[in-house]
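We modelled the chain as a single entity of 62 amino acids. Its sequence is:
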Amino acid sequence: MQGDEEHERRVKVRGKRCSVTVYWDSKSVWFAVGDYMGESINGSKGGATRIWIRAATYKGRL
């Protein structure tokens, strides 16, 4: 992969399917961006999609 590449991933959060866009901004920086319950959630660093899923799961508990 090279910088600025984007990939869409389908994930499940609390049984609900969500679409998350994962992109590589630089050699070591990944971002995952998606909407959950009407709110945009951003995850970054290693395991960006995993971080996004955790944030969405936490939001679902509120």
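As a brief sanity check on the tokenised model: The beta strands are 5-13, 16-26, 29-36, 39-44. The CA atoms of residues 24 and 48 lie 10 Å apart.
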